[in-house]
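Format notes (please read before filing issues)

Several people have asked whether sequences and structure tokens are stored in separate files. They are not. Every record keeps both together, in the order shown below: the sequence lines, then the token lines. Line labels are part of the format and must not be stripped during preprocessing.
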Amino acid sequence: MTQLNGKLLLNEPLARYTSWRVGGRADRFYIPAGLDNLRTFLQGLPADEPITFIGLGSNLLVRDGGVRGTVVLMHNVLTDMKMDGGLVYVESGVTCAKLAKFCAKEAKQGAEFFAGIPGTLGGALAMNAGCYGSETWDTVKRVTTINRRGELHSREAAEFVPTYRHIGMPVADEWFVAAWLELASGDAHEATRKIKALLAKRLASQPLNLPSAGSTFRNPEGDYAARLIEASGLKGYTIGGAQVSEKHANFIVNIGGATALDIELLIAHMRDTVQQKQGVLLQQEVRVLGELEVRE
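Then the structure lines:
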């Protein structure tokens, strides 16, 4: 039997693990030592234990009251990446930036866009992350998932229903641990050039110098959330330590001392203002976890 040699922390502050640098505590926070260790850990949990998986904590707002149950950290845990026949095998803890560079080095094209996604592959699979006209599930051939009983399942891409920033799961309570990506052969130098150009564009247009969580809202069909927010006069609007970025209106930045509540109130204000002034109801892209802080 695999020894339980991961790290279990109690009442761990989740602000340390989210890109906004906000959020309350997890009742239990587990960092697995590997896949076998993760399986053993899940097998030992009560059947009714709430389980949450996180990667880099981008695209994620953890409320100030924290998260009940167990949070499992995947970033820097499942990090194997290799060629498997003609496919790219990559585990869910690998950052999308590293995946893009690996595919370029292997002269595979079509994965350059991953360089613009500030998260892990697991998160990218779970929300069909994308940018600059490409999406994660455009590349997926098959995946391995794990359920709350620690059982692994191999699933073909056809079993999933990908839509814009969402993936329809065939079975509830399964999480991604690995994927095989099918990419066309290309030129390593050209792929590297595209990645550099994409990163330069991202640096020029996004507020990467302050804590944020990427795009706050999905782009409505035929338009851009950032344009609608800016047209509503919201650039620079601030609640507490949370501000609508003056560089990219679809980003909320933590300018110092923000709480999760500040950010959630700002998201609501942006949505309401755009609906009132532009007649468009923006759909939130950021995932919200946990409970509101109870104040005496």
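For reference, the curators noted about this record: Residues 48 and 154 are 25 Å apart (CA to CA). The domain at 225-289 is CATH 3.90.78.10 (Uridine Diphospho-n-acetylenolpyruvylglucosamine Reductase; domain 1).
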